[in-house]
Specification:
Arc Repressor Mutant
Length: 168
């Protein structure tokens, strides 16, 4: 590594000595670190304001907090209020809908009960008609058997037995 010399004013040399002692670093190492620091951060030391970085961070902190408070006031709180209002309206609509659904179910149950009663009445009528028809059929069967007995008094042809086996 080639050693190079730089010319600086005596005041700045004394400051370099103080900083070097404070950080426990040799002059060359300290200068190299400064160069790397300026290169990485993009800070131009010639244009640098002579302020304490901690004070600058505090100012920046206040600006960020102020920005966040404005965001909270202008965006987050109104948004939260809108979400709350929407939720409240949905609950009201659901309770209204819930009542409507309950009423609809009651009406459907009443309709179903009425329909079941009507169907039961109709089925009872049909069963009554079927019973009448069965009675008529039995009477007709009995009549056929009587006729068969009269036609074949001695049951030689076997018509009476044939008819009975058909009707059973």
């Amino acid at each position: 590594m080639a050693k190079k010399s730089i010319l600086i004013k005596e005041f700045h040399h004394k400051e370099l000595v103080k900083i070097s002692k404070t950080f426990g670093s040799q002059y060359g190492d300290l200068i190299e670190s400064m160069i790397i620091y300026f290169k990485k951060t993009g800070i131009n030391p010639i244009e640098a304001i002579n302020e304490n970085p901690a004070a600058m961070v505090k100012v920046l902190d206040k600006r960020i907090i102020s920005f966040l408070k404005v965001q909270e006031r202008d965006i987050l709180k109104p948004l939260r209020s809108e979400v709350y209002q929407q939720s409240k309206e949905q609950k009201e609509e659901f309770s209204t809908l819930s009542k409507w659904v309950k009423d609809a179910i009651l009406r459907i149950n009443q309709f179903d009960s009425t329909r079941t009663k009507d169907l039961t009445k109709e089925l009872d009528k049909i069963n009554g008609e079927l019973d009448k028809l069965k009675n008529k059929i039995h009477k007709q069967q009995d009549a056929f058997i009587e006729i068969a007995e009269l036609i074949d008094a001695k049951n030689k042809s076997g018509i009476k037995g044939t008819l009975k086996s058909i009707f059973e």
